[in-house]
Every structure is written in C-alpha cells, then in structure tokens.
Amino acid sequence: MLIDNVKVTVEGGRGGNGCVSFHREKFVPKGGPDGGNGGNGGSVYVIGQNNIYLLKKFREQPLVKAESGQPGAKNKKHGANAPDLIIKVPLGTRITNLWDNSQVEILDESSRFLLAKGGKGGFGNWEFRSPTNQTPRQFEPGRPGQNTKYLFELQLIADIGLIGLPNAGKSTLLNALTQAQAKTADYPFTTLEPNLGAFDDYIIADIPGLIEGAHFGKGLGIRFLRHVERTKLLVHCLSCESENLIKDYQIIRQELIAYNPKFVDRPELLILTKADVLDKKTQTKLINQFIKQNLKPLFVSVLLEESLEELKAVMKKMVG
Ligand SMILES: Nc1nc2c(ncn2[C@@H]2O[C@H](COP(=O)(O)OP(=O)(O)OP(=O)(O)O)[C@@H](O)[C@H]2O)c(=O)[nH]1
Ligand SMILES: [Mg+2]
Question: What are the EC numbers (predicted)?
C-alpha cells in the first residue's frame, strides 16, 4: 500500500561536551586550562525526490535523529562537528510542524529545508580562564538538538481514476499495473479507503465501488469521488462476470454526473475486466453491443500480460 501520511519525530544531534583538562609538560609545574570545546551536533534537513514511495520507511522508523558532536579534548582540541543528516521525501509532500503548525511544501529537488538544528557543543575549561581564576574546572555540557514532531503528507493528484461497481476488479487491476498492494477479494466493498499506485510517472487512484443511488448516500457514499474529481482520465471498470455490462456502465455514469455535472465531458476509457472468463465468441457479441452504443471498450484481464500492456499504452496516450 502506498503510504501517503506519516508522523515523524525529528531530532538534531546533541552537541559534544566541553573538556576539563590542564596543560601538562615537563618543567612546567602549573600548566593552565586547555580543555577544548565540544563539536556541534548534526542538523536534520529534508529534500524532495521524484519517488512517491519514500514515506514508507518513516512508517517503519518514525524517529529520525542526527549524530552527536564529539567532546572536546586536551590541548584545546575542538571535538568534531557531527555531519548533517539529509532525509528524502516524495515531491509533493506537505510538511506540518505539529508544535507550531507551520507548513512547507516540497515541490522541487533543489531546495532543502531545516527540520531540526543540531545542539551546540559546550565550552571546554580553557574558555573559562580569567585573571581571577586561572584553574577553572568549569565546562559546558553539549546542548541537546532541536526536537520536533512533523506530519509528512503526500498531496497526490491522481492522473487516472479507476471507478466501477463493487467487485469489478479495480483493486486487482491497480495491483497488476503498479507496485500497490491493495486488498482484493471476491466480495463487494473490499476497498474502504482509496488506494494509490504509480506506473512510470502516472498516478492511479482506486476508490471503493459505487452503487446505484450513491449520490444520495447509498453504499459507501460518493465522498470518495473527490479523489478522482481532478483526474485527467476516468477508467470505467465493467466486469465480464456481470449480466448486463451496458446497464452497469449507465449506472456509474449517472451517479458521476449526479455528483458533479463536470464529469460529463471528462475523458473516459471503458474497460471490460476479467476478460479471461469469456470465450472469444461471447467477447465478440459483447463488443458489438457496445459498438451499437457508440462505445469502444477494451478487454482487460490481469491474467493476460498483453492486455495490461495495451491498457497502459492507451492510458498514457489519453493522459498525454
Ligand atoms: N478471473 C479474473 N478474476 C479477476 C480479475 N480481476 C479481478 N478478479 C477477481 O475479482 C474479484 C474482485 O476483485 P477486486 O479487485 O477486489 O474488486 P474491486 O473492484 O476492487 O472491488 P471493491 O473494492 O469491492 O469495489 C477478486 O476475487 C479478484 O480476484 C481478472 O482479470 N480475471
Ligand atoms: Mg477494491
């Protein structure tokens, strides 16, 4: 399943502690303080990348933390600064700071944003020397890094929407075309929330099945249609197992238009799913019924690789 929102705790690295040390040398009885400062902790930055699956790893590992700075050492040696940590999120991710609600959108690959600053390293005792205190034992511990909680949300606008009656094979098709792992089963209303997947650079949305009367709130309701409202192409899935595919098509079309009349002239592609259940003769009869209605559907079966390739090619051409 495509992970499109995650909560992530982001922590800058802690600064290294300052060092307490006194100069030791033969014939120099009272060497002064020489403890060096600690190095700064690493900061955490985020950059965008063209890969919609990048949020998944944060679901598995919701804490991101940069390394701590090294402590200071004798001879006024500074501890090393820790390297910054750069994390990647998909382009189109909206990042909300859950503590102050500030937001940023990651829209290109060239900018990077600071999520959590590393803590400053502490002063070693050398920094505390003064005319009145030549043997300071003070030092500063390293400061903790910033710690913030963020919500990463992928704002995807699907190019293609799969719609159809329950059990039409929409989720199975999504899985066959993309890396999505949507739940599928041999009963209606398997899908309860939209699923997203991508092939090449095209994003496909699979939504719960629609039924007659959906725009009055029947079934799972039409609220999921907003997920396909801005798609460039609607793919109507009509199951070859159905008794009357033309009627199925008309039901879905009426529901769409009742929901939003703008759907009337949205480019659409009709596909007859589960084509493998029909023999050639029945397929020809069926296609002729559609042609009479001035409709030109495509037979598709997830068991027939060529039909999937053809479908991909047609969808690409229609989306542009
Ligand atoms: N023979 C065959 N069966 C298929 C094909 N595609 C899907 N199915 C089966 O059809 C059933 C329904 O598939 P789903 O993908 O869950 O259907 P859906 O349209 O997503 O259903 P809802 O989520 O309930 O709207 C499953 O048992 C699938 O295995 C196909 O190309 N050939
Ligand atoms: Mg489904």
Answer: 3.6.5.-
